[in-house]
Amino acid sequence: MAEFVQVIDPGHGGHDPGAVANGLREKDLTLKIALYTRDYIHELYEGVKVYLTREKDVFVSLNERAAFANRLNADHFCSIHINAGGGKGFESYIYNGSYSSKTKTQALRNVLHDTIVAETKLMNRGKKEANLAVLRETKMPAVLTENGFIDNKDDADFLKSDANLRKIALAHAHGLAKAHGWKPKAKPTSAAKPVPKASAGEKVFYRVVAGSFADRENAEKRVRELEAKGVESFIDVHKS
Ligand SMILES: [Zn+2]
């Protein structure tokens, strides 16, 4: 089966901060949520490739965001925004025109919307339609999520927590997976701990441990065995 192509679109960026209030900027929140969503999807599901319309704080026009998804021939487009203007809670949008894929677009949105409301516990403002450029100009089913109000004290407090941004992202990943029927990846075996990933600008070294010994002699024996196999190793002393 061909890979599912999911485009995630972090709203605003660069000279366009989006909504700004309570010490928060929409463009920063949408980028974090989008990056987390991409990582969750790649970590949890098989056969899905996520592309972001921007991966850093740069300006991308609305036309270019839609054109990017169209060039990729993406299967689905999900734009992530934060609301403003004196409300509270979560709402989602699909294009309000009449188009052949509207029933499908609506069904996908409903699953995503309900999952996000259930998992984030943001107040449910309802499923809406509007004539928005990224929804109108994308050729595939498209949805836009408005994840709380930056100018509402309660929502802003919620959005100030990185754990909550991850919660919103995970809810997007779960909701999209449910909507599209993505297959979960096989769980790692109990012995295999997840290997931490390096975040931007951070260098990580992975150390392979080939044994732990109470006895220096046994440790040296293991080093000689490894050396015999052509593996360079050394003894690192830990005091308990
Ligand atoms: Zn926005």
From TrEMBL:
SUPFAM superfamilies: Sporulation related repeat, Zn-dependent exopeptidases. The keyword Hydrolase applies. GO terms for biological process: peptidoglycan catabolic process. The keyword ATP-binding does not apply. GO terms for molecular function: N-acetylmuramoyl-L-alanine amidase activity; peptidoglycan binding. It holds the Pfam family Amidase_3. GO terms for cellular component: outer membrane-bounded periplasmic space. It comes from the Bacteria. This is N-acetylmuramoyl-L-alanine amidase. Keywords: Hydrolase. Its EC number is 3.5.1.28. Residues 200-240 form the SPOR domain.
